[in-house]
Amino acid sequence: FGWSHFNPSITLLPERVVQFLLVKDKKKSPVTRFEMVKYIVGDLKDLFPEIIARTAEHLRYVFGFELKQLDRKHHTYILIHKLKPLEEEEDLGGDGPRLGLLMMILGLIYMKGNSVREAQVWDMLRRMGVLPSKYHFLFGYPKRLIMEEFVMCPYF
Q1: Name one GO cellular component term (predicted).
Q2: Domain 87-152 has CATH 2.40.70.10
Q3: Looking at domain 3-81, which of 2.40.150.20, 1.20.120.910, 1.10.490.10, 1.10.10.1200 is its CATH number?
């Protein structure tokens, strides 16, 4: 048994790093180890190799991203899309941002053991600046999109 089995933070931190990286990826800016430690990992920086390995697994299996280290000296990372465009994207109107939102929600569901309360979804989205009943320039009205369109998807 490794030390991480006794530290509940090690299971939560990769989830937070994933969310941080996905937000940074939308801005198309590389992320440094320094930023991840400063904003998320904090005092557990000695566990960074294990945290980043688990983060990379989540990104690969849930979102189809590869976490690539660009610069070993400055520890700079980017996300590389590994999935080919899916035909299902047309089911969402061919809208990449909406598909990204769906992937974030499905990722949250996956990381929480395949079940989440609606409040958990809204908490995550609020942290990203997406409010349930407020018009969003990319998604329209998020609550309507999620509750009327996304729930009709067979995998939701």
Answers
A1: nucleus
A2: no
A3: 1.10.10.1200
**Neighbour-count burial of 50, counting CB atoms closer than 10 A to its CB (0-12 exposed, 13-18 middle, 19+ buried):** middle
Rounded Cα distance, 86 and 52, in Å: 28
pTM of the complete model: 0.56
Distance CA 22, CA 62 (A): 12
Segments of the chain assigned to CATH 1.10.10.1200: 3-81
CA-atom Rg of the chain in angstroms: 16
pLDDT in tens, 70-126: 888 889 999 887 765 544 444 445 556 777 788 888 878 877 778 889 999 998 888
Nearest to 56 by CA among 69, 41, 42, 66: 66
**pLDDT tens-digit series, residues 8-60:** 567 788 888 988 898 888 777 889 999 999 998 988 889 999 999 999 988 88
